[in-house]
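In response to the reviewer comment on reproducibility (Comment 2.3), we provide here a single inverse folding case reported in full, input and output, so that an independent group could reproduce the run without further information from us. The structure tokens appear first.
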């Protein structure tokens, strides 16, 4: 990873190249034979990066349009290339100037793609925060969770980040300070929203026999359904991607919730943490108020969540930085290392659709 900042002063290509070179060096590889990335028209093109890496030729390469939903499933795209014999070493990266460059905090009216937004925009759906605030309001009510519990989520994220030199937010957060934070769209305060940051993250995937001591991609699923992304058509506006993907993921992995040692959850907004904990069977809904308040999602708690601080505190590289921390945890070199971590859950959020992966120690 590059340093995460609010103003990098660098191009997305420069950020992508730095993170990619570090990932390749960590893997002991001079050049990949395939490159994958995902973006929202806010990144460095794959071909530009290949040229920057001085690659004389390039094999399979692809740019996937999408944001956080791709952070887990792009691992499967790389794995399928390797399994099909189309590549041996796949470089995956995400680079963006998410604070100083193109930001995601608003949606505009337009024709063509996104035309339906003109019918929801007048009712306050001006961007992702407003959209997922509506879903969050309903979920928190149904789950009997209050701002005391959303504070517990953010406060634990900050506490984890205290020991993470990469994190952009490294301060403790008490309840009065949290409650004084400006409300963006009820129930989401400014502190309930992830950090918009500049930076890049890169990973290298290769055949298991070439890296016998490396963490493995064990299972990945992608999908979703009607829900928080299309609220005017949803039977349940609170049903996000995890409600659709938890069962298929455990079936694909041949695992149960109690196999998960550490959860790297896509925490774009604070309420998404309890929602995913419930959906993935890690904490029953009835137990959420007590366990969140008791900080049982700490790195040394009952269900460790984002021991590096996650997107709420470390920074926002569209979820790929969470996957990088999963790798560190499985290597035993993580921030706030979870003792004996052998199975990591990684998730990618985009409303009612997304992806999820299980990574395992070798």
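Designed residues, in position order:
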């Amino acid at each position: 990873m590059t340093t995460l900042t609010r103003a990098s002063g660098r191009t997305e290509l420069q950020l992508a190249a730095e993170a990619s070179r570090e990932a390749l060096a960590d893997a002991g590889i001079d050049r990949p034979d395939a490159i994958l990335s995902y973006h929202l028209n806010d990144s460095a093109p794959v071909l530009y990066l290949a040229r920057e890496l001085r690659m004389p030729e390039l094999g399979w390469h692809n740019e996937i349009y999408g944001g956080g939903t791709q952070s887990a499933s792009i691992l499967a795209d790389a794995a399928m290339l390797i399994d099909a014999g189309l590549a041996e070493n796949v470089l995956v990266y995400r680079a963006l100037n998410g604070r100083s460059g193109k930001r995601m905090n608003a949606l505009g009216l337009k024709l063509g793609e996104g035309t339906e937004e003109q019918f929801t925009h007048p009712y306050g759906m001006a961007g992702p925060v407003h959209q997922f605030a509506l879903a969050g309001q309903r979920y928190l009510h149904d789950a009997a969770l209050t701002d005391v519990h959303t504070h517990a989520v953010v406060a634990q994220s900050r506490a984890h980040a205290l020991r993470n030199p990469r994190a952009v937010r490294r301060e403790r957060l008490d309840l009065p300070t949290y409650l004084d934070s400006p409300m963006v769209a009820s129930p989401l305060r400014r502190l309930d929203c992830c950090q918009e940051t500049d930076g890049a993250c890169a990973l290298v995937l290769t055949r298991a026999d070439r890296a016998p001591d490396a963490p493995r991609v064990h299972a990945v699923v992608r999908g979703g359904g009607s829900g928080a992304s299309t609220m005017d058509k949803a039977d349940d506006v609170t049903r996000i991607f995890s409600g659709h993907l938890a069962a298929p993921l455990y079936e694909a992995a041949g695992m149960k919730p109690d196999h998960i040692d550490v959860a790297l959850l896509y925490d774009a907004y604070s309420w998404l943490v309890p929602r995913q904990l419930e959906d993935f069977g890690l904490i029953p809904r009835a137990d959420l108020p007590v366990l969140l308040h008791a900080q049982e999602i700490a790195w040394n708690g009952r269900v460790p969540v984002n021991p590096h601080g996650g997107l709420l505190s470390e920074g926002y590289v569209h979820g790929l930085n969470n996957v990088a921390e999963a790798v560190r945890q499985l290597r035993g070199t993580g921030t706030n290392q979870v003792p004996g971590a052998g199975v990591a859950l990684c998730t990618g959020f985009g409303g009612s659709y997304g992806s999820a992966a299980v990574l395992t120690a070798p």
